[in-house]
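Hey all, quick one. A colleague (J.T.) asked me to put the adenosine-5'-triphosphate job into the tracker so the inputs and the structure tokens live in one place instead of scattered across chat threads. No bug as far as I know, just bookkeeping. Sequence used:
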Amino acid sequence: MITLEDAFKKLLHRLELTAKEQKDVTDRHTRVREIVRGGIGVDRDILSGSYKRETKTKPLKDVDIFFILRSSEEGWLEKHPEDLLNEVRGLLTPTYGESKVTLGRRSVKVDFGVAVFEDLTDERVMSVDVVLAFARDGNYVIPDRRLDDWVTTNPEIHAEQARNANALYDGRWKALVRMIKKWNDHQDKPVKPSFLLEVMALGILNRGFGGHYSLELQTFFATGAQRISEEWTDPAGLGPPLTDRLAAEPWQRQRATDELSTAARNVSRARRLAQQGKNGEALRVWRDEIFGPLFALS
Ligand SMILES: Nc1ncnc2c1ncn2[C@@H]1O[C@H](COP(=O)(O)OP(=O)(O)OP(=O)(O)O)[C@@H](O)[C@H]1O
Ligand SMILES: [Mg+2]
């Protein structure tokens, strides 16, 4: 049987991006870039979102490709946000297929049909999200179908905030966010969007690393269960509240609260079992109740 320390090391390692995955993302990005650039005026495009910030969990999916469109395309801003997303969807379907290219809230998703087994994808990226943006006043304006409006964002500010939080945590904060998102995945995403978890981690895990991942997780889940009832805003102070979806769907917020409370209880149970020397039982709780198959038992 593996020690708890080694099981965490293994999990952390498995949640890091491998060279092969990054190569696959680069290749997919190159192909998608060619197609999008072939049909709409693009100024530049970059990988962004949690992939760029190193806060993405595994299996690797929904990597954001951020296209900054030319000012000659700004006529789109007079139309419905969905029109621009549909236009770009139409560019991508001949290559990837009707059923593989779908509209998200703020992006066009391209699904590559990659198989998953026990949370592993043979180091391939499952999907990308194509985001279309216009530069404005040092920030960016992007479509939002849910609001039927154009909203402001700034991925560079989010990246800097994540870097600062990570530095305060001796380089361990991003790994904690990847673990917290893995927990959310394993419970079928009670917290949506998962960027909300990262934003909550900015607010909750802000006192420096205490020395144990398990203790940080306990703090996050226990405090998160209390504080998910609050309104959480864009930490860059630009976009719509991250809790707008939870506010509109009270049962979703209740489920998120319940799952966060359960997680806090499970983490303290796992910690207690470990203190009692019941290593095997503690490992089981971490794997079965919290992280799933990426948490190794041996
Ligand atoms: N409400 C918002 N206001 C402003 N910017 C936002 C908002 N929601 C998301 N963003 C920005 O858009 C990016 C992409 O959003 P997305 O929902 O894909 O989250 P993500 O951080 O990439 O997380 P995930 O790991 O779920 O992919 C975020 O990383 C963030 O920079
Ligand atoms: Mg994303």
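Adding what we noticed when we looked at it: The first strand starts at residue 42 and ends at 48. The longest helix spans residues 250-275.
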